[in-house]
């Protein structure tokens, strides 16, 4: 029963505030062990992939994958998070407006292999960011407000190539005991969202 979470909304303003106050317990300095464990599934023997990080925060896994020769694109509403990502890895970057999205900025490493869009994920489309061979969805679907899940899943489906791999991390717990995020997304719902 996920009923008690269905109405819960975390606004963009609240996310920005979490970043400002350093309330970012979700950030993993050491990276996520499940990406290491399932890297082969993500890559599936391929090299030079385009990999998407929805709701990316300052996930260190973006640096890992770029260092392996992949091209990484992320989207994050907090400009502070994006800037911290580049500065904490000592990566020089440039910053430019995104013509299709009023107010949005794109931060790109000087080497060109990491591009982070600072805007809401719902502003993106494949005509702006292209399509991806792989997705690392950790702290993303489970951070999306329950009422926006369908929209999020439809967007993600529109952003992936036919032969893509999508790694999704969810969290299993009793949704009546914690209000989220991360929200509890049962497997049955994942099946109905992604088919
Ligand atoms: N995936 C990251 C961060 C998870 S926390 C990690 O593994 O560490 C979720 C992040 O999504 C936060 O940094 C928050 O600022 C961002 N966010 C929330 N709503 C968003 C939206 N609509 N578009 C883009 N980013 C969003």
Automatic annotation (TrEMBL):
Give the matching PROSITE patterns: SAM_MT_TPMT
Query: What GO molecular functions are on record for this protein?
Result: thiopurine S-methyltransferase activity
Q: Which UniProt keywords apply?
A: Cytoplasm, Methyltransferase, S-adenosyl-L-methionine, Transferase
Q: Which reaction does it catalyse?
A: S-adenosyl-L-methionine + a thiopurine = S-adenosyl-L-homocysteine + a thiopurine S-methylether
Which Enzyme Commission numbers does its entry carry? 2.1.1.67
Q: Indicate the segments annotated as coiled coil, or none if absent.
A: none
**Any one GO BP annotation for this protein:** methylation
Question: Which positions in this protein are listed as binding S-adenosyl-L-methionine?
Answer: 15-26, 55, 76, 120-121, 138
Enzymatic class = transferase
Record localization:
Cytoplasm
Q: Which domain of life is it from?
A: Eukaryota
Per the record, its GO cellular-component terms are: cytoplasm
The record's comment on protein family reads: Belongs to the class I-like SAM-binding methyltransferase superfamily. TPMT family.
- Name of the protein in question: thiopurine S-methyltransferase
Organism ancestry: Eukaryota, Metazoa, Chordata, Craniata, Vertebrata
Gene encoding this chain? Answer: Tpmt
